Amino acid sequence: MNKWMRRLGIALAVFVLGVAQSFPVFAEPAESYVIDKEGYKIPTPLGYSVERVLIGDYHYGMLKNPEDLFIDAADRLYIADTDNNRVVVMDKLGQILRVFGTEEDGLELMSPRGVFVERDGDVYIADSGNSRIVHLTPEGELVEEFVAPESELIDPDFPFAPVKFVIDPGGNLYVQSGNDYHGLLVIDGTNGFQGYLAPNKLKFNLRDWILRELATREQREALGKKVPPNHRNVTIDPEEGRLYTVIENTDSDELKQFNFVGINTYPAARYGEYSGKNGIFTSANLVDVAVDRSGILSVVDSNQRKVYQYDQEGNNLLVFGGSGSQTGFFQEPVSIAVDSEGLLYVLDRGRGEIQVFRTNHFASLVHEGSRLFHEGRYEEAMSPWQEVLAIHSNYNLAHRGVGKALFKQGKWQEAMKHFRLGEDKANYSKAFQEYRHMLMRQQFGWLVLASGLLLAGLYMAVIRLGRYARKVEFAPSSVPAWDHAVMVLFSPSEAFSRIQSRPRWSPAILLILMLVAARFFEIYFTGFHYAGTRPEFANLWLETSKIIVPLLAWMVSGWAITSIMDGESKLKQIAVASAYAMIPMIVGTVLTTLLTSILSLDEKAIYEGLRVCIWIWTGWLFLIQFREMNDYSVGQTIRVMLVTLFAMLALLVAATLFYVLMNHIFKFAKELFLELYIRSQ
Length: 681
Fold this sequence. Notes:
Low-confidence stretches: 1-27
Number of helices: 17
Mean pLDDT: 86
């Protein structure tokens, strides 16, 4: 019986394995997308495909933790094979041509981490383990060594440890030495120190400042010295001679372009991708940058395992790659280079290989459109951009390119449409300004008449409301809520006195709801070029809480502080009066929102000025409210309001901390329950 059961089990296992092998195994598909200015990912067709993979050969051995890759003018690859203490030279198909650092050449390289090749074929190697840069002929003969330059200006806390460098046409070396944060060391052809270039600045951090101010001397010493981030890598544009660097340990301005006086000319922004999953936050870590003949930057990120492409204005063109074991994905990418054909070579230290990527049709169109666009040939760029939109209608940069061409042709309305789709507020405003000017010329008479009637109507409305406020001040009507609303605008002292004597919840709740509605109106009807929140991404619950929570905190804090400081108002009185004090904010939000439909960004000062006036008016009403309802002097009222504001902020911070704590407790309880449940099974 056991014998038959064993045979049956073997037959069943063979059958299951056969069935399992009959199904294909699907690898995770490669993805490509762009990151817009708001940080949202927009999927695109795949921009690059793997052409081939270069891994060395069995005669010379495999690469071992390589650190750097350089492609010379003849499309030869130079790889700093760090843990093998050598530099490998291969052709673009992966055939090894020669090796520097063998026993025969006597160079005795130790952990080389950078390599650079001049146009004449001379090779420079950052021999990091030996604290030098060696200069070799194309045949591998030693020409000279660059060692630690002598200068009192060099910080002795950072010994010379070259890791990455480039050489300009004048023979000057720009060296990143270890973790030296002072900038790139500039060394001339005679090993003389010429100074530091492009030092990064330490950004102000409120949290760190508070910690250091409150900490003791021992605690400050334990925290250590805060220093600026250092350059991780440096590249030079072979056509223009500009320096590009990538910065590590920072959350903005990770990519920079320097002129030769050390000024960053690249747009200040956040580059790379920042992601979070299951409570784990992963930042970008840009480790290398390559620039092609069109000025397109390709940047590799070792944390996200991705490649980003940017144009000269900092616009993201494409993103591809990711973490994985199949081709098209990376384990630990550390360097990137581009050859004369535009092929991208990505060096993966974890795999010890180089993946070669070729552009697909979509990426080729994007690159062509971007090149023509930044050369100012907008109408020529329109054709590739239209082809891009035919493939992918949501590609923002293509809409901007088409909009620019239409703007040059004087088609303002069509240009506005494409600028809106391309999220280009500045150019949308310019097209809008031209379109508005055209309408004013065509419909000048009607526009003057409509404007006159509107202004006359507003003037009459203000006059009538003022008369009504003076009337009900002496003879109240049968609708006290309406009386109070009008009087708050024209006779606030009397209005708050009456509200204090007869506070009612229903009009206060209605006014708060109107304030929320005004915010919704602002989100959905503000002109595109003035919009701060995109309607499609607006979280209405969050927007509501951003209004109601601070207002409630102000009411509670005001009641608490006035109770302590000999005030006379009660919580209900403060709450109702505060709601009435928000009337200028309600009316002003609606009016300024409508105003964005006729103003361009050049008239933004008018818009901002009106908003400032609304805030001042609202603040003035709160001051009158506190003074009248508590019988304070002006000076005492100001002090109470400042203390109330501080208390409100403290209350909001405490509520936030409580929420975070409860959230952690809930997550802990959930994980504990799941653990106990699994163990009980």
